[in-house]
Every structure is written in structure tokens, then in C-alpha cells.
Amino acid sequence: MMEQPDAPLGATPVSPPFPQGDVLATQFLQAELEQNVRLRELSFLDPVCYVYNPLEYAWEPHEDYVKRYCRSSKEVLFLGMNPGPFGMAQTGVPFGEVRHVREWLQIRGQVSKPAQEHPKRPVLGLECPQTEVSGARFWGLFRSLCPGPEAFFRRCFVHNHCPLLFMSQSGKNLTPADLPAAQRERLLQVCDDGLAQAVRLLSVAMVIGVGRFAEQRARKALASAGLQVRVEGLMHPSPRNPQANRGWEAIAKARLEELRVLPLLTG
């Protein structure tokens, strides 16, 4: 049974024996591999011309991320929408701006290539020179708050609702919301199922959707799955969001304080 929506974070839940360490990480990774099978059955038409799945070609660093940091139940799950071209698409880590993934998270692993690569969006893995601003802001915040990544991951984890990156013929990034309705609904059903499974596996008490889409999708997915899990939102750090460009870190800190998450990171 999941914790009720208004259960205080930091309280010790009464629950049956919970898988820990390698067992939990292996279960989480297996669920993602099973989701990959379902995702490969989907087809995408115009305007989608390129689809990258970093949980295939960047599996090694993603596996390292999960095995390092997904080893216990998590009170809080930060949920992103889908990979960015210079973040998770390069590193296999949600909001995975290369410098923070290498230097702070200490993630390692070989990255190959997607089946079809857009010439303007090459996959260079952990050697990618471009910076994903959203990821730099996201992980930079927690790097400033926590003495090390272990302090963050003791009670929190970061996951994406959808692991796929979509691009048009020109290389423009397309979000799941940009897809034609029929394609979008088939995709979101697979991703909703994956989110519900992740929440069950980690015994999550609260999902924080980073951006409105992730928040709204989490509400829908978890309600449909019958999971009584608190869902809240956090402003997306994207540079396309003018408000985020006027001090996202301070806004995010205030929101985490309001949600009583900040003490989990600094205590």
C-alpha cells in the first residue's frame, strides 16, 4: 500500500520487506527493458523523422546511474518529460547535462549511436561539448544543496516519463505533446504504465513533475493505476521559459521548501 497523499515526508513507513541494493536496481532496469520492447512496437509518422532511444544506445551509463543510485525506496520521484538532445540523449541520465553527469554523478559507460542519426544532432556521449541548460540548472541546484550525490539519492530519484527523443526532418526537437493524437496516445499509454511500475517498485510517496506536462501526466497515470500518491509540480528550468531565466534556482528552492522536500536534501 502506498503512503497517503498527506503523509508527512520523512516519516518511517510501515511496509512489508522491501527489495534493496542490487535486487531493486535490477528490477528497475528489467522493467525499463520490458518497456523498450513495447516502445519498439510503436511507429511514428510525420512530423517525426528521427527517434532516439538512449535506453538502447546509451544503456551502459544509464545502467551505471540506476545501479549507483536506485538501491532503496524513494520518498520523492522527480519526473521529467522526455530526453533533450544534449542531455539524456547523450548520457542516458534524466536531465543529463554532460558535465554534471561526469563530474558530480560520476557516471561512466560507453555510448553507441541510434539506428538513424540526424546529422545536426550527433550522439557523442559523455564527450559531447554542448551544454543542456535545463540539465545544468537542475543538477546544479542539487549539487549546491547536497554535500554529494548520495545525499540527494538517499530519499530521491530522477526519472523521465518518456525515454524517447523525437526530431523533425530539420532536427527540431519535438515533445510528446507535438505528436499526432493517435501516435501520442499509444506512446503515452506505454509510458504511463512504466511510470506506475516505477512508482510501485520504489514505493514513492510523492512525484514532483518538472514542468506542467510531467505533472499533469503523472496525475493521470497514477490515478488510472489506482495509486494514491501525492503529485506536485516544479517549474521547468528550460531557457525557453522566461520566468526560469529570471532566477530558476531561487524559485525552485522556495517550491521545495514549500513541499517540505528541502529538509530531505539538507538534513
Structure characterization notes:
- There is one protein chain.
- The chain has 267 residues and is α/β, with parallel strands linked by helices.
- The chain is 43% helix and 10% strand.
- The strands form 2 sheets. The protein has a 4-stranded parallel beta sheet with strand order 3-2-6-7, sandwiched between helices.
- Helix 1 runs antiparallel to helix 3, helix 1 packs antiparallel against helix 8 and helix 8 packs across helix 9.
- The radius of gyration is 17 Å and the shape is globular.
- The two termini are 27 Å apart.
- The N terminus is likely disordered.
Q: What share of residues are in beta strands?
A: 5-15%
Structural class: alpha/beta
Mind summarizing the main beta sheet? 4 strands, parallel
The general outline is globular
Mean pLDDT across residues: 93
User: How are helices and strands ordered from N to C?
Assistant: HEHHEHHHHEEEHEHEHH
Poorly predicted runs are 1-8, 11-16
- For the record, give the distance between the C-alpha atoms at the N and C termini, rounded to a whole number: 27 Å
Helix fraction? 40-55%
> Cα-atom Rg, whole angstroms?
17 Å
| Strands in their spatial order, largest beta sheet | 3-2-6-7
* Total beta strands: 7
User: How many helix segments?
Assistant: 11
